[in-house]
Structures are given as C-alpha cells and as structure tokens.
C-alpha cells in the first residue's frame, strides 16, 4: 500500500522489526548491566527525543509530523 511516495505497509513492517529488535537488545543490556548502568539524564532524553523527531521529519518531509503537547511524542497532523 502506498501513500504518496511512501510504501506504508513496508515501512510499518520495517519499523516494527527495528523497534522489537531494539527493545530486545535494550532489555538484554539492562539485564546484564543493571548494577553498573548509568541511564541518560532527563535533559539528555529530551535531546534524544528532539533528534529522533527531526530525523522522522527529515525522512517524511511531506507528512507535517510534529510533537504533541500532551504526550511529547511525534505524530502526523
């Protein structure tokens, strides 16, 4: 299924694979390093979120993706 120049079905499958792989990897890292692991500060997390949002906006420039005020997560308008 295409929406404009975006293969929506392919993007969803790719996104779900990447998300699940990242989640499993993070869980393994946390499990094996829980005693010594230092998590990012709230400021660093804000920077990470902003970078992720800008990356998505760059990948999908015609989708008008913006941060939602209520949840601080990207969404398509």
How would you characterize this protein structure?
This protein is an alpha+beta fold. Helix content is 57%, strand content 13%. The protein is built from two helices and four strands; from the N terminus they run ββααββ. The protein has a two-stranded antiparallel sheet with strand order 1-2. The longest helix is centred in the N-terminal third of the chain and has 26 residues, at 8-33. The model has no long low-confidence stretch (mean pLDDT 88).
Helix % is 55-70%
Query: What fraction of residues sit in β-strands?
Result: 5-15%
Determine Rg (CA atoms, Å).
16 Å
Mean pLDDT: 88
Characterize the largest beta sheet: strand count, sense, and whether it forms a barrel. Answer: 2 strands, antiparallel
Instruction: Tell me the number of strands.
Output: 4
- Which series of helices and strands comes N to C? EEHHEE
pLDDT below 50 for ≥5 consecutive residues: which ranges?
A: none
Number of helices: 2
- Secondary structure class reads alpha+beta
Largest sheet: spatial strand order = 1-2
Shape: flat
Distance between the termini: 20 Å
């Amino acid at each position: 299924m295409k929406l404009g120049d975006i293969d929506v079905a392919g993007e969803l499958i790719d996104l779900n694979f990447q998300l699940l792989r990242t989640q499993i990897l993070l869980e393994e890292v946390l499990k094996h390093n829980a005693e010594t692991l230092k998590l990012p500060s709230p400021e660093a997390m804000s920077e990470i979120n902003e970078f992720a949002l800008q990356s998505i906006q760059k990948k999908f420039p015609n989708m008008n993706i913006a941060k939602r005020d209520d949840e601080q997560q990207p969404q398509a308008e």
